Amino acid sequence: MAIFRRKFSDRDKKSFFTQLHTLICSGLDFSRAFGLLIECAEGAEKELYSRVFGRVVAGEELWRALGTEPVFTTMDCCVARIGEETGRLPEALDFLTTYYEKRDSRRRMIVSALSYPLITLSVAALVLVFMLLVVVPMFEQVYSRMGGELPGITMRIVEFSDRAPAVLLAISVAAVVFYVLKRLYGKSDSWQRVSSSLWLRTPLCARFVRKWQSARFCRIFHLLVSADVPMLEALSLMRGIVTFYPFRKSLEEAASEVERGGSLSDGLAHHESLYGKRLLVLLRVGEETNTLGRTLLSQADALDSELEHEVRQLNNIVEPLLILLVGAIVAFVLIAMYMPMFRLGMTIG
């Protein structure tokens, strides 16, 4: 199961929900549609679909059957539940198809945008480590035999080179400890509160995280509103779907406000830093004009477009800056190590 879980990607989910949606919309009953889906699948996917279908045949609802498989998220189950309980399963499946299609597309875009900077940073780190552990000690041995006092900048590089193994060991230990703690406490409120706070305080990440989470909120809440799910129940379902701590807490406050007779926009008004003033204003207008569903969908599309545009722009700026950074680091170390030779040449001259 663990091996299969790693292979069942967003693209696989999109394919699953797309095929099931197409078969149901073609007029086939659910059993026949799922049977054809199993017939077309192979290997581990066929086993997964068969297990889900077996539970449905045994009397379980589809969303509960999906929930027994770790490859399906809470959101998958909640959306399927909404579709079943409101009699709009095809619309729910279409939503999941679109959601995973956009998510896969966004992920490929981000991977494409970050691949070059990450490769550049990795190469820069490897070059720096090689110079500190191999090149600098070679120069140090040469200068120790020559005698004389080294320039201050060269001494600093030599001292840092001597401490480099300990620094690398400390970084490795910290990475292992972080991984273990995340595995143990990653789902706790304390961990999520601290990690989300760090994300939102990181200058380059905060804007992207807010827009991505806001777009996800708009898209999922649009489905709930379109399915005529009562506001309190919709907010309750959203709290089970949204995992990012500040947004989840904001939805809890919004639910309390709605329960007291207020509106969704009033409940979210204290979280302008998360959702943005424009979105909150449009939500209030959507509630007042009874067009909340359409407003949520349009804002989800707008935020997705803005996010994609900003990621591309950031990539265009970061690439040349990283090249300059790598060149500056290598040049700094080389100049520092060759400076004694320059001084010696000037003395002899």
Structure write-up:
This protein has 349 residues and is an all-alpha fold. It contains 16 helices and no strands. The protein has helices at 2-7, 10-25, 30-40, 43-57, 62-67, 74-86, 89-146, 152-185, 189-201, 203-226, 231-241, 245-259, 264-268, 272-275, 277-288, 292-348. Helix 2 runs antiparallel to helix 7 (89-146), helix 3 packs antiparallel against helix 4 and helix 15 (277-288) packs antiparallel against helix 16. Residues 1-6 have low confidence and may be disordered.
Question: What is shown here, in short?
Answer:
With 349 residues, the protein is mostly helical. It is 86% helix and 0% strand. It is built from 16 helices and no strands.
Q: Which segments are poorly predicted (pLDDT under 50) over 5 or more consecutive residues?
A: 1-6
Q: Mean of residue pLDDT?
A: 83
Give the termini distance in whole angstroms: 73 Å
Radius of gyration: 28 Å
* H/E series: HHHHHHHHHHHHHHHH
Number of helical runs?
16
Query: What class do helices, strands and sheet pairing give?
Result: mainly alpha
The number of strands is 0
Q: What kind of sheet is the major sheet?
A: none
> Helix content range of the residues, please?
over 70%
β-sheet strand percentage: under 5%
**Based on CA inertia axes, which overall geometry fits?**
elongated
Spell out the key features of this protein.
single chain, 349 residues, mainly alpha, 16 helices, disordered N terminus
